[in-house]
Structure formats: C-alpha cells, structure tokens
Amino acid sequence: MSERGAASSDTDSQRRRGGRSPAISRRAALAGAAGLTMSTSGCLSRFRNIVNRDDIEQLSLTITTLPADGDRESIRLAREIAAALETAGVDTAIEMRSNEEFLRAILINHDFDIYVGQHPGGLDPDFLYESLHSLYAEESGWQNPFGFTNLLVDDLLEEQRETDGEERRDTVETLLEALAVEQPFIPVCTPTEHRLVRADRFEGWADGHLATRGGYLGLEPLTDESGEQLRAVHMDARPSQNLNPLTAEYRDRGTVTDLLYDSLATETVTADGAHSLEPWLADDWEWIDESTLVVELHPDCTFHDGESLTASDVAFSYRFLADTALGGDGSPAPSPRFRGRVAAIDEVEATGESTLEFAVGVGQEVGERALMVPILPEHVWRDRAAEASVRGVRVAQGTTEAVVSNNFPPIGSGPFQYADRSEREHVTFERFDDHFSLREDVDRPEPTVDELRVQIDPRSTSAIQLLEDDAADVTSSALETYVVDDIEESDDVELVESPSWTFYHLGFNARRAPFGNPRFRQVVARLLDKAWLVEEVFDGHARPIATPVTDEWVPDRLEWDGEDPEMPFLGSDGDLDVEAVRAAFEDAGFRYDSEGNLRVRQ
C-alpha cells in the first residue's frame, strides 16, 4: 500500500528499530555532514576561481510570496527578508502570486528559489514526515516542496512513526535538533488567530476551534432566525471556485472539506488549544495486535446523493488517495493531499458492510492519525482515475481527473451538503439531515442550523464591518493582525482568540544552488530577527519559534528564550551587523567582491 513499506527492506526495518547511537552522536553526525559538504564545496570553489573566474557572479534570487490581499503578513515578511538579504549582498527580487498560483508554483511545479508563506503544520509532529522525507522530494503537494534530502533525517522521520510513548518523544526531540542544524526551511513564528463572532446570535463559539469542523457544529442558536442560517464571511475566494478535497492549490487547512466529507476520526480542538483524537464516522476502533486496527462504522450511513456509505467506500478511499490512477498508469499517482497519512496504512480490507481491518505499518499513535482522511464515494470518484485532459493545457504525465476536477457539486457524507455558489461571491451549504450525528443515540457535535452561507470578502476591515452591521456571524478566516488592536468588542460582538498550529516560514528550493547547501541556509536563518519581525510585521500577535511543532513537543534546548537558541540573529533590534554577516558567509565558503556583493557560481 505505502511507498515506505515497498521501499524499506526487512533489513532496513531492523536497522531502524535497533542498534541506535545516542541522540548527541546523531546530531553531531548531522552537523559533521553539513560541515563536510560545505568544506569540500568551499575548496572546490576556490580551485575553480583560480582556473576560471568568468562565471562567478553576484547571487541573485527571487522570493515568491502572496500579495497583500492574499496574506498581508506574508508580503510584509518577504519585504523584510529581502531587505536583510540585500544588506548581506544578495540581489533580491520579490514575486507576488495569487493564492492558487502561489501554491501551484511551490507545491506542484517546484518553480521558485525561496518563498515566504504559511505552512499548514499539524498538532502532531508526524506532519514533518511528508513535509521532509526524501521519498517525496519530487511529488506534488505539501509532500517535501523543498526538495530536501538527508538520509539521517529520513531515518529519524521513519523511527518517530514506528514508535510510541516516551521512545517516540525522544526520537522527535532528536529529529527537531537535526532540523535546527539543517534548516531545510526557516520557521519564523506561529500566529495567534483572532476571529470576530456574534455572541447575540449563537452560544458555544469557544467550544471548538474555528479552523476545524468542530467550530461550526454544536453551536446553540439564540433566536429562531439564527437557527435558520449561520453566516460566515471568508477572506479567500477559493472555496467558491473549487471544492476538490485532493487539490493542493485550493485547500489549506481543510475546514470546508471536513464539513462536506466525513473522516473515520476527528481532531477535537478547543479555542484554548486543548486537543484529542476521537472517533467520528467510526463508531469505534480497536487494536487487536500491534499492527492490526479494526474499525466499526456507524451503521446505515449515506452520501449526500442518497447512496449508501459502506466499508467498501472507505477501503476504496485509502487505495485512491495512495494512487488516484488505481494502478492504471503503471506507477502510482498519489493524491497531492493526505499522502503521508495514507502511507501509514499497508493494506485495508472491508470485512463486512460496516467493518474494516487496517494493516498498519507504523506505531499506534501515527496509525490512528491515518484515520483522518476524507471518505470518498466510490461511485463518484472511480471514474476520475482516468488520465486528465484539459483543453489547451499540456497536462503532466500521471495527472488524473481526480486532481484537476473542481468537484462541483461535491458529494460527501458530512454534516453539510453543497447547495449553490457564485464564484468569488459566496458558497452555500445545507444541513444534511441524514447525517449520523443527528441521531439520538449518537453523541457527536451536530449541525444546528439549516444553512451555512460563506460570503467572500477579501479584507479584514470590511469583514469586521459585516459583523458589526449584523450581516455576518463569524469571520471564518483569521483576521489580519494589524486590525486586531482596533476592534471594539460589545455585548453583541466578541473577539475569539485561539492558538494556531500553522507557522510562517521561509522555504528553500534545495533542488537549486546554493539553496541545497546547509551552510548557506544556516547563515540566512541568522539574518532574521524573529522577535523583531513578530512586533513589526504581526503587531505582536504571534510567537517567534525555533522549531515548527506545537509547544508540547518542543524540547527544552530549542525553546524560545529571547532569541533562536540554534541560529541567533547576527545583529540586534532588527539591524544586521554587516561585518558579522560577511564573516559568516565567508566562513561558510562563500566570498564577496570589492563592492560587497555575495558571489556564487551561476
């Protein structure tokens, strides 16, 4: 089922499970490997300079990011980073792209030098497996968009999947220390999310995180009118343009997907960040041995079109997400989303109408997280396994209709079903009255409104005005940080603050020189005064970070303590120490010309 299982031999598995050297030795090996790479590279560069100096030029790069109406913080962050690089002698340009164009360039085409944006992250560090494993360096999606390859890091990524409890925690700590050395991307900060809500129309806003399905279920309408419609305002038009759960360009955190499509398990997250993994479409599950998980579905579930949802649809969903061509293309064509989760499952078999047996190739902690993928109706998606055909567009080999379809109308089994849309204006959903959560014998948060209307509005200021004018109930997008301090709350309108597991970062395309050089990445990391950027760019509504996981996973040595403990800023209060920067690049094997330009081989 999974490439990991196919690619790893029994000998490899034994090597990963036993005979490990101490964590400090592993970290030292990584640092040594980085040093060996750079020292060799530096010697070769000096030799080549003597032989032929004609192709040694100033380093020029482009930062790809979003415009202000796509993500104001990203473009402001990109400008500050560009200024730091220019100060360091790097010729730097900024390229702004729309949300879908940005994600297509980064995740699908890998067409960038470096980029600045938000990573979807995760509440469990296993998201790093698909984000950084070298198996995925050429795939599309959030699977290793950096093209980062490091066999020692691969080893740790695999080990943290195969272990549980304290052993896993120790492995994750070693992994994070390795990433702090390698800097495959530079984590900058985790934003604090703020949303405005109408407290006079609904109660229960703090019971579920508004970036998850739980934030929109179980709300208590306070008037008959509010029970008829929940009015959300969203600052991203993409849900009105595409509702395909598999596309990387149109899906970020998957909130809309989770309302349209059920998953076997759900991450229950409260506004204060407390979270747990619980059954959803699965009535329950049980481990019958270390690698076999039996799942029992709620009985008599249906899709939005009235067709029965059975264990066969669940088994199909896992096979399809692993290979959207269903074996028809010769080599697998995995979904650009959910790749890492389905890779945890070696095999899935429907053993009854509502019973499944999963052969799990990882530890139980990660294995259970594999239950959080959308369940697709086989009768709708099987025909999308065909090779994609888009008039006037040359489609890459291995691309299926499943990936390029806009999926209107979407047919899922979730608590809301699609009603209608007007592109860039709204998308509207209706309560699915046959949803299992509405049964008296089922204790799950349920849809409490007849309709969910998502209005598209591109700016925080106008979205806030809609709330204040009682034309909307919730800003489903997090508000831009610059407006937060000016919001005036009242008895009717409240500001809901919640933590985020997403993080802003600078990503390198390691497929291109010099971004594949860890010494180069390390120096760039030291050009960023993260604490200063949080104040200047995010108006203080973020936390600077040295590692990209949630607080409970951060080892003591990598906790933020006024500065990045591994990559401290080369300067103070946002101002670079130019001499220290030049010395750092020269120590890394690079050189400057007489005009202060950083030189590299083109």
What descriptive keywords fit this protein?
602 residues; alpha+beta; Dipeptide-binding Protein, domain 3; D-Maltodextrin-Binding Protein, domain 2; Dipeptide-binding Protein, domain 1; 3 domains; six-stranded mixed sheet; five-stranded mixed sheet; globular; disordered N terminus; transport; signal
- Helix fraction bin: 25-40%
Shape: globular
Looking at how many chains there are and whether they match, the oligomeric state comes to single chain
- Give the class from helix and strand content and strand pairing: alpha+beta
Number of helices: 20
Q: Please give the alpha-carbon distance between the first and last residues.
A: 42 Å
Which architecture of the largest domain would the CATH scheme give at its second level? Roll
Beta-strand content bin: 15-25%
Instruction: Give the biggest sheet.
Output: 6 strands, mixed
CATH class of the largest domain: Alpha Beta
Number of domains: 3
Strand order in the largest sheet: 3-2-4-23-5-24
CATH topology of the largest domain: Dipeptide-binding Protein, domain 3
Pfam families: SBP_bac_5 (PF00496)
Protein name: Family 5 extracellular solute-binding protein
Region (Disordered): 1-24
GO molecular function, one term: peptide transmembrane transporter activity
